[in-house]
Amino acid sequence: MMAGQEQHRRRVVLFPLPFQGHISPMLHLGALLHARGLAVTVLHTGFNAPDPARHPELGFVPIHEAFPAEVTSPGADIARQLLALNAASEGPFREALASLLRLRGGGGHQADVACAVVDGQCYAALRAAAQLGVPVLALRTDSAATFRSLLAYPRLLDAGYVPVTEERLDEPVPDLEPLRTRDLIRIDGSDADALRRLLARVAGAVLASASGVVFNTSEGIEAPELAAIRRELSRPAFAVGPLHLLSRAPAEQTLRAPDRGCLAWLDARPPRSVLYVSLGSVAAVSRAAFEETAWGLAGSGVTFLWVVRPGSVTGAGDEAPPPLPDGFSEETRGRGKVVAWAPQREVLAHAAIGAFWTHCGWNSTLESVCEGVPMLVQPCFADQMANARYVTHKWGVGMEVGEVIERGRVAEAVAKLMVGEDGARMRERARHLQMQATAATSSAMDSLVQYILSL
Q1: The organism sits in which domain of life (predicted)?
Q2: Exposed, middle or buried by CB within 10 Å (0-12, 13-18, 19+), for 430?
Q3: CB 353 within 8 A of CB 370
Q4: DSSP string, 96-165
């Protein structure tokens, strides 16, 4: 790891949150930093460990954590899961970083670690790096809009906007337009006190420990939100995205093997004729909502590619994809394809894709924006609500599938987006937003590298 020319580079240490939507942008960032002359070491958990073979230019060092079942269980309460993950990883991360600092480079000099870049959800690792005297940057893998609402959390708590209550769901949130109370960070069914503690610790760690914040977003689509964050923070904020476009990595880091046969299937479909449906790598819906989705797709008459992964239906187990409703495959034969996982970036870039039914995780939202694909939104938890609100009411490039998933409404929304006049207008706005999002240059990344070298 320290051999050859790597000895003479200043080093950046990365630590991603061990979930797919967080690992991918962190590794894209690592590849970009390495391409600009920095040595990069990735400290990582054994749980959901990244594949070193996909990034031979980076060094990978496991921290040898011991996670309780509360962290690794697919059905865990998300807020409690992240609290437990932070508690269990703090000590192993601290020791791994300290060991790296003790390593000797060429000429007997101590390893030259310029800084650490830690996932913003890993508040304990942010704190540990700062306590070891290592300058640390927080990588936010969500939108700037979401982070702005996180910074506002103490004010929102005092004003009674959070925790979210039924009677205030549709109230606009002052200074966070176009967000309503229902669009703030929330996890329905999660322990409310655990969520409050988690959000307070995440925001507090940035303010107490971070020397700067890095965003996987673009000035072209979130300039007002970034400007507001910079006014509030007393440290730099860098918008270096979209990372998946700027990185030379050939494809996203996935924890599941994608079914690449769906690309050949798309090749045989006319332009903009296929609805791509995927709720990401973590979200799960009830069996009733799953069946209504299936019959809504069937009733829409639209051609679709649907990702049905293991664990996507609550209570159905995580070893195999949940069974489709009886008669669904026969009803949709010739115009529907169901896969357990898809190479999403390639799918969204395919000419046959006309729209994307998405949970509005930030990676999925950004990938759709960067391909000019309009969206049908079904947010499930956390930052997805704010992203969905921006898609529908700030950028105007999508519509809601509806809070209640019902087959008639699903069929109507799908047809409206795919073949209706409203869908055509959203498609045009999506192409315009694509130009804004992809107008990124290397200047933001260059500024980040200069800042790292100054630390």
Answers
A1: Eukaryota
A2: buried
A3: no
A4: HHHHHHH-B-GGGPBP-EEEEEEETT-HHHHHHHHHTT--EEEEE-S-HHHHHHHHTHHHHHHTT-SS--
CATH second-level architecture of 4-241+440-454? 3-Layer(aba) Sandwich (3.40)
Domain spans, the chain? 4-241+440-454, 261-437
**Residues 12/52, Cβ–Cβ less than 8 Å:** no
Cα 374 to Cα 372: distance, rounded to the nearest angstrom: 7
| Annotation says 22 is catalytic | yes
261-437: CATH homologous superfamily? Glycogen Phosphorylase B; (3.40.50.2000)
pLDDT above 70: percentage of residues in the chain? 94
Say whether the peptide bond before residue 163 is cis (omega within 30 degrees of 0).
yes
Question: Catalytic pick from 28, 119, 350, 359?
Answer: 119
pLDDT averaged over every residue in the chain:
92
Catalytic (active site) residue 119: yes
CA distance 354 to 142: 25
Same fold, 4-241+440-454 and 261-437: yes
- 0.70 surpassed by pTM: yes
Q: What is the arithmetic mean of pLDDT over 272-279?
A: 97
